[in-house]
TrEMBL record:
InterPro entries: MCP_dom_sf (IPR023395), MCP_transmembrane (IPR018108), Mito_Carrier_Antiporter (IPR051508). Signal peptide: none annotated. It is a multi-pass membrane protein. Solcar repeats lie at residues 19-112, 116-209. It comes from Huso huso (Beluga). Keywords: Membrane, Mitochondrion, Mitochondrion inner membrane, Repeat, Transmembrane, Transmembrane helix, Transport. It comes from the Eukaryota. Pfam families: Mito_carr. This is Solute carrier family 25 member 34. Belongs to the mitochondrial carrier (TC 2.A.29) family. It is found in: Mitochondrion inner membrane.
Length: 231
């Protein structure tokens, strides 16, 4: 138990559960992969909308996609329901690696006491996000290539025509070398750094505040509810 002094006396708080680091890594990765299955169709549509009209003057190209719902219908009509899950396998790889590294590193920072220092949560969250984004960047690149691929009738952007995930990695490596696999990493790292710093620091602070308010009895249910996926 942890004790914090106050004017009214001592407030006893439950100590958060310690999870074996490899298991922490696996749980964080599994949770994010589960979410990826449901959000991947939106990722496919987002990629198509962003590539539509690439390097073309406005009004000089045919618009195949006119919004999220219409784009979902167009993809399903042209490619079938499987088309909405294009790039899913490498998307799961990206989420598993990126969030496994991100949450695992933040969990280690919490266990070491680094996050208790002023600004420690923000710094640990940003560093965790940068590491995760850098390590998983090749998977994100391949995911984007595969999600852009479709039949000629609704194709937008450059079509790389990869046969599969492994062939995509090989073809990018052969054409551009090892550096080519990390193309765009300079944009991915700052984006994930900011999001990770805000998300993880906010969650940790909110959890500590809820625990300090003692809104629940100190039983197993309350203790588990106070723990984050990276505790």
């Amino acid at each position: 138990m942890l004790q914090h002094s106050s004017e009214a006396g001592l407030v006893t708080l439950p100590r958060t559960l310690a999870i074996w680091p490899p298991l922490d890594f696996a749980l964080g990765a599994a949770a994010c992969c589960g979410a990826c299955v449901f959000t991947n169709p939106l990722e496919v549509v987002k990629t198509r909308l962003q590539l539509q009209g690439e390097l073309r003057a406005r009004g000089s190209y045919q618009r195949h996609y006119h919004g999220v719902l219409q784009a979902l219908w167009a993809v399903a009509k042209a490619d079938g329901l499987r088309g909405l899950q294009k790039g899913l396998s490498v998307g799961l790889l990206y989420q598993g690696v990126m969030n496994g590294v991100r949450l695992g590193f933040y969990s280690y920072s919490e266990a070491s006491g680094f996050t208790r220092a002023p600004g420690g949560s923000l710094l640990a969250g940003a560093t965790a996000g940068a590491l995760g984004a850098f390590v998983a960047s090749p998977a994100y690149l391949v995911k984007t290539h595969l999600q852009a691929q479709t039949v000629a009738a609704i194709a937008v952007g450059h079509q790389h025509n990869h046969v599969g995930v492994s062939s995509a990695f090989v073809s990018i490596y052969r054409a551009q070398g090892i550096v080519g696999l990390w193309r765009g990493v300079n944009g991915a790292v700052p984006r994930v750094m900011v999001g990770s710093a805000v998300q993880l620091a906010t969650f940790s602070s909110a959890k500590e505040w809820v625990v300090s308010q003692q809104w629940y009895k100190q039983d197993l249910f309350g203790l588990l509810c106070s723990c984050s996926p990276f505790d």
